[in-house]
Amino acid sequence: MADFDPVTKAVVPAAGLGTRFLPATKATPKEMLPIVDKPAIQYVVEEAVSAGLLDVLMVTGKNKRSIEDHFDRAIELEEALEAKGDDERLSQVREPADLATLHYVRQGEPRGLGHAVLCAKQHVGDSPFACLLGDDLIDPRDELLKRMIDVRNTYGGSVIALMEVPEDHVSLYGCAAIEATAEEDVVRVTDLVEKPPAAEAPSNWAIIGRYVIDPAVFEVLENTPPGRGGEIQLTDALRTLAGRGGEGGGPVHGVLFRGRRYDTGNKLDYLRTVVQFAADRPDLAEEFLPWLKEFLASR
Fold first, then answer.
1. Residue 188 confidence (pLDDT) above 80
2. What is the model's pLDDT at position 120?
3. pLDDT mean over 17-27
4. Hey, how many other C-beta atoms are within 10 angstroms of the C-beta on 226?
5. What's the CA gap between 71 and 265, in Å, rounded?
6. How far is CA 125 from each of CA 25, 71, 170, 196, rounded to the nearest angstrom?
7. Residue limits of the Nucleotidyl transferase domain (predicted)?
8. Alpha-carbon distance 48 to 212, whole Å?
9. How many CB atoms lie within 10 A of CB 103?
10. What is the per-residue DSSP string for 106-117?
11. 131 with 213: CB under 8 angstroms?
12. Where are the alpha helices (DSSP H) in the chain?
């Protein structure tokens, strides 16, 4: 195995306006919407921690203070729960603050995912880092991020997570042109296209919201003009790195993910995710699933 710098930091972009969930997100960050009884953003941080990344940078924006509060101590609440002897809820309240070392930087204006990643430059420095998007939740039983870090440790460069999607969905994603490697779940990425029409997509392997990125991306992002939607696209920067081969921050590899992914990016998928998580909860499923079956039978 080649001697590449270790991945120790995670970047979580959380500056979006959450317009698809208005009016709920008028004063509450989309990332704080609960999946049963835990905000979506906590699942993302827990995933980073489970992959060994204990240094987490949140890229936030205006009206995101509640994210910082969630991952901070809540002394008065803790004291009240302690006085009641409610050890279970006390542990749940303390858990977010104990997960990792959290840092925060503001993205002053919504200029795209690439710009949000660029905001992490000072914190990340010259080290490779993971980037986790809050719209995608990966089942903790499917250790995708750990696998991506392993691939980075083998090949260097950057690694993206790819998932096969139906042909009529490719225009919703960045899509990759790929070449096989000796490993069944690893491909070499030769090109990337952001949200192409189905007829122009290089494949139906779509980028989902997990990346392990070489620090050379920052120089590329600084010189990447706004693309689709007038935003600086991370996909465009990774495409540049892929074109460099093994030089200048390349190559780019993909991990073909066939596990369990939950989408929280729109209302319908969010509702599906809540139901799936509730159905998997031992403390809820015994009562929830019979009710759900009865409800569906009555429709």
1. yes
2. 97
3. 89
4. 14
5. 22
6. 33, 24, 33, 32
7. 9-271
8. 11
9. 14
10. E-SS---HHHHH
11. yes
12. 40-50, 65-70, 75-84, 87-98, 113-118, 121-124, 144-155, 217-222, 234-242, 267-280, 282-297
DSSP state at residue 20:
G
Domain ranges, ordered by start, for the chain: 9-265
Q: How far apart are CA 42 and CA 98, in angstroms?
A: 12
Under a CB-based contact definition with an 8 Å cutoff, are residues 8 and 53 in contact? yes
Residue with tokens 């990340």: 124
Q: What is the DSSP string of 234-269?
A: HHHHHHHHHTTTTSTT--EEEEE--S-EEE-SSHHH
Angle between helices 40-50 and 144-155 (to 10 degrees): 40
Confidence category of residue 122, pLDDT binned at 50, 70, 90: very high
For residue 131, the Cα-to-chain-centroid distance in whole angstroms is: 6
Give the mean pLDDT of the chain: 92
Quickly state the pLDDT bin for 250 (edges 50, 70, 90).
confident
- 114 is written with which tokens? 């690439």
Question: In 10 A of CB 26, how many CB atoms?
Answer: 11
Q: Which two tokens stand for residue 92?
A: 């749940």
CB-based contact 51:63 (threshold 8 Å)? no
- Cα separation, 108 vs 102, in Å, equals 19
Predicted confidence at residue 209, as pLDDT, reads: 93
Encoding tokens for residue 175? 């899509």
DSSP state of 24: T
Q: What CATH architecture does domain 9-265 belong to?
A: Alpha-Beta Complex (3.90)
